[in-house]
Design a protein that fits this description.
alpha+beta; 29 strands; 470 residues; eight-stranded antiparallel beta sheet
């Protein structure tokens, strides 16, 4: 099969499903009726709705929800009546009301042909969607909850190995501005939030390590991933324009698989399939990332580089690289975050947390509490950790601590252990200030910021610092 024909295959499959119409007993019968609901003719819509209700086929609800999104408001009455009849619920009149219903109703499983149906509808927005949602693609998530986020494929342009300058040449930054700090292989680099806010994906190389800084403004999560796939090869990512539980689905440019921005796992596409024998499933390694102020990062790392201010890119993209500009542009934009759970209401949805993942366990630390306590001796699962927060800069870091306990030192960059020894809070490790045969640096753990609702949607088994153990 030619490459062009292979790329068109999902779209052609959708056409076959759509044109199959009311073929008895075929998957096309149901999706053909859904196509009738999208007709501009009121009689055809009413007839399709009547036949849908008579079918009693609740497996058509997910496809009907997708169709509902594309219907003009004055043509939604028939689809709404069919949704109520087939689901047995009155979720509301908004499209997102029905997406939320799908989130809390795992019993509403779409019938065969659903991925082709969904891809065909999304092809109205961008003809590339059928190639990303191939009907035969392996899937790890509930595709019924995948929604369009408002932009086409790579409609938010990623930054690919952007230009950077020494700190002294970054006169456009003020000291209190927020930056994402990265330290790898002896090299340090800062990514101003005011720029990352607009692009959301940065593909770069730091200290010889290919990385992607993936940011989702909707769930407030910024995660740094190692993206080396094999010797001499690495993944680079862009935005797909699709969301799952209010979190960005990234697309890798090498295999066109879709990945969860928050978990670092491929969820739809070739890489989402089962691993070959003896291999672990594909997953990006999470690296330490520090959200701090430019002044704090520059004081700690005077040799750091920082993104150059690209005025030409700002002009071409229509962005405003000003602090808070992207947040103001997106104010009020919300998407369904998935079903509630035992801890989902423990914090207000947009509460900022510092999230730590370790050996399959996860724990969230409310940012305000971490900054108030400054030093937290704790455990993530069975592993003793220490979380260090600096209220001056807002930076939070986590480290393995072994059996040591720590308290604050004389400065924000210093801890004191139970034996009175002083330690330096570093980017790679806690480092003892006094040389001793029994002392070794304590390695840093991957951690990153997130909103509570976004984090909990993907890690419902997470532990929450300050809550009783479950």
């Amino acid at each position: 099969m030619s490459r062009r024909r292979a790329a068109l295959r999902p779209f052609l499959l959708w056409l076959a499903v759509l044109l199959a119409g009311p073929a008895t007993g075929a998957a096309g019968e149901g999706y053909g009726l859904l196509a009738g609901l999208t007709s501009a003719a009121g009689g055809e819509r009413r007839d399709a709705a009547r036949r849908l209700v008579e079918s009693g086929d609740a497996s058509l609800v997910p496809g009907l929800v997708d169709a509902y999104f594309f219907l003009p408001r004055n043509q939604r009455a028939e689809a709404l009546s069919a949704l109520v009849a087939l689901s047995g619920e009155k979720a509301g009149e908004r499209y997102h009301d029905w997406v939320e219903l799908l989130g809390r109703r795992p019993d509403l499983v779409a019938r065969p042909g659903y991925l082709a149906w969904k891809a065909g509808l999304l092809a109205r927005i961008d003809p590339r969607y059928p190639s990303l949602l191939d009907a035969d693609a392996p899937v790890r998530i509930r595709v019924e909850e995948v929604v369009w986020g408002g932009v086409p494929v790579e409609g938010i342009p990623a930054l690919d190995q952007p230009a950077h300058v020494p700190a002294a040449q970054a006169g456009y930054l003020t000291g209190d501005e927020r930056v994402f700090g990265v330290s790898l292989g002896g090299e340090t680099r800062a990514y101003p939030r005011r720029i990352v806010d607009w692009h959301e994906v940065v593909n770069d190389v730091v200290g010889g390590e290919p990385v992607t800084l993936a940011y989702s403004s909707l769930c407030g999560a910024a995660v740094l991933y190692a993206t080396r796939a094999a010797p001499g090869e690495s993944y680079t990512f862009g935005t797909s324009g699709l969301l799952y539980r209010a979190n960005k689905l990234m697309v890798d440019r090498q295999t066109r698989s879709l990945w969860s921005q928050l978990t670092g796992e491929p969820v739809i596409g070739r890489l989402a399939g089962p691993a070959r024998q003896g291999e672990a499933p594909a997953r990006l390694a999470v690296l330490p990332l520090t959200l701090t102020t430019w002044q704090d990062w520059r004081d700690r790392h005077p040799e750091t580089t920082v993104l150059a201010l690209d005025r030409e890119l700002e002009r071409r993209s229509g962005f405003q690289y000003l602090p808070g500009a992207a947040e103001r542009k997106r104010a009020g934009v919300v998407f369904p975050t998935g079903p509630a759970g035992p801890l989902s209401a423990a914090l207000p949805p947009r509460t900022e947390v510092y999230a730590v993942r370790l050996d399959g366990r996860a724990k969230a630390y409310p940012l305000a509490r971490a900054l108030a306590e400054r030093v937290i001796d704790d455990r993530v699962g069975d592993e003793p950790v220490v979380v260090v927060a600096d209220p001056g800069s807002g930076a939070v870091r986590a480290y393995r601590r072994g059996e040591r306990t720590f308290t604050r030192g004389a400065t924000a960059g210093e801890l004191v252990d139970g034996e009175g020894r002083r330690w330096t809070v570093g980017e790679d490790a806690l480092v003892p200030k006094e040389a001793a045969p029994t002392l070794a640096p304590l390695p840093r753990l991957p951690g990153h910021p997130s909103f509570w609702s976004g984090w909990y949607a993907f890690f419902p088994g997470t532990a929450l610092y300050g809550s009783p153990p479950r």
